[in-house]
Amino acid sequence: MKVEGAANQYCRGPSIWDRFAHEFPERIADGSNGDVALDHYHRLEEDIVRMKYMNLDAYRFSISWTRIIPCEQNRPSICVPFFFFFWVELEYESFVGLEPYVTIWHWDTPQALEAEYGGFLSRNILKDFEDYCDFLFKEYGHRIKRWITLNEPMVHIQRGYDEGLFAPGRCSVWVNRACVAGDSATEPYIVAHNLLLAHAAAYRLYETKYKVGVSQSNKYLPYDSNSTADIDAVQRSLDFNYGWFLDPITFGRYPRNMVNLLGSRLPTFTQQESDMLKNTYDFIGLNYYTTYYSKNNTNVDPLHLRFGSDSHAITTRTYSEFVTASNRWVPSGSFCILTGSDCFWSTPKTHMEITIFT
């Protein structure tokens, strides 16, 4: 949606971001929407030529669920013009030597499914997501060797279900008065749970042939001081960011810090679900933006619980001993990742392929 444009052409169905941007333009910084965006749909050949001119050897892009399966009426129906658009895009990339890294879900849940049963708040979405993935694997699998099931799920959950700043704009009203529905204490964990199960189902569907991973946004979190409390806060921050998704797809369970702090608010996996989740990735994609520093938070209000404070840690980009860029983002965390430090996240796998997206 952020790139392609052509939002109202052919049989494309609306996503939750279409509804959010059009119904609540005041909640978008500049009031814009994705109707035109970068107009990649009409500039496909030009864009691919520019990538080749830049000597790129790979290109990461997303396939939009509602461009392939509109979901509005007859769910199995396929939007043929956009099916061919992505097919042509892959042909162009192959011709100029670009390796595709394809994201299956980049926050653009079909609005029809959101209206029907609440989108990823409901387990009903698991079958619909698996059907969508099955179609992609069958039709495009011969061209795509690396699939990314979920892009930055934690960001979608935090902004969309804890703060109400992103689509679908849900949160507790005491967090954001613009939210007309939601629960910042419980919904983030329900959505994450269903996203994890959707990822696992897609991986098991595809694991015999190619490589599947997830993409996380990077928040390397060194502590502010040498205090034990702040060191512990770093681990909690990592658990509530990376561990929230990487622990289940590695170990089949949530991090212990989350289990201990959330209690009954954290959904549980059955033994079958746990077994299905274990080792369901072949690589981890990282979108690196900035470093955050973490310190202990002793002022959590038990009467106003929410994801944003559940880790009992405060994160900030402000720390005078370290260099920041002009936009106040901190670049030092990228070195931590590239050198393999455990300040990111540790894995028991003998080999983990990490792909940095910049």
UniProtKB/TrEMBL annotation:
Chain ranges passing through the membrane: none
Alphabetized Pfam families for the sequence: Glyco_hydro_1
Coiled-coil annotated spans: none
Gene Ontology terms for molecular function: beta-glucosidase activity
GO biological process per UniProt: carbohydrate metabolic process
Family: Belongs to the glycosyl hydrolase 1 family.
Protein name: Uncharacterized protein
Record organism: Linum tenue
